[in-house]
Amino acid sequence: MLTKKQIEYVLETMGEMFPNAECELTHSNPFELTIAVVLSAQCTDALVNKVTPHLFDKYKEPEDYIQAPLEELEQDIRKIGLFRSKAKNIKKLCQSLIEDYGGEIPTEKSELVKLAGVGRKTANVVASVAFGEPAIAVDTHVERVSKRLGICKWKDSVLEVEKTLMRKIPMEEWSDTHHRMIFFGRYHCKAQSPQCPECPLLEVCREGKKRMKKRGVVV
DNA sequence: CTCCCGATAT
DNA sequence: ATATCAGGAG
């Protein structure tokens, strides 16, 4: 496991690698962001961004999603995959926005998770990106990077990863850390082909050193 | 734990 | 051609 000092170094290095890391989902208000994050479940942000320009042009308010026939909404988001469940969730989500939240996205995580299609990860993204709340959304990238580096244990659940990160990282750095780890995971420490040989974190990375050894490279 | 599903990397 | 990617609901 990495020490606090090592984690500091890791975050600093990621910051140097990706100084402009931020949410990559196209959106112009909390409502659009929420829809985009719901769509992004089990799907890349890049793909979501291909669908949302048309979607946000056509559906401005919760009412617009409610009024559209389900089949039409499904077709509008079909490229995303899992489109039937997501279309249903979005309709439900908009319904409760109107009924329970005055048509606005709630700012509290505890309220966000009550919305259809919004789980812990999505709630954290919305709270953090839309409302500036300190949060670390543990998506697949954050989880993979944390585990490969040795910030947490391999068998930790997503929730345990989140708790560990919150424990080991000062709160004012949660938001930046979250985005840096996502960029690091998405563009460098990739799921299929991690760029270990060129990684500036190789010397502190548990998994990286193991992979190098496997290939007979001395690090 | 299984189902939901299309896009993209290999 | 097919393995892998990417969260939440039931």
UniProtKB/TrEMBL annotation:
Domain of life where this protein originates: Bacteria
Electron transport in keyword set: no
Keyword list (alphabetical) reads:
4Fe-4S, DNA damage, DNA repair, DNA-binding, Endonuclease, Glycosidase, Hydrolase, Iron, Iron-sulfur, Lyase, Metal-binding, Nuclease
One matching Pfam family is HHH
The cross-references to Gene3D superfamilies, in alphabetical order and at most eight, read:
Helix-hairpin-Helix base-excision DNA repair enzymes (C-terminal), Hypothetical protein, domain 2
**Free-text remark on how the cofactor is bound:** Binds 1 [4Fe-4S] cluster.
The chemistry this enzyme catalyses reads: 2'-deoxyribonucleotide-(2'-deoxyribose 5'-phosphate)-2'-deoxyribonucleotide-DNA = a 3'-end 2'-deoxyribonucleotide-(2,3-dehydro-2,3-deoxyribose 5'-phosphate)-DNA + a 5'-end 5'-phospho-2'-deoxyribonucleoside-DNA + H(+)
Residues the record lists as binding [4Fe-4S] cluster: C189, C196, C199, C205
| Transmembrane feature ranges | none
Give the EC number(s) under which this enzyme is classified.
Answer: 4.2.99.18
Q: Give the family this protein belongs to, as stated in its UniProt record.
A: Belongs to the Nth/MutY family.
Q: What is this protein called?
A: Endonuclease III
Q: Report the source organism.
A: Evansella alkalicola
Upper taxonomic lineage = Bacteria, Bacillati, Bacillota, Bacilli, Bacillales
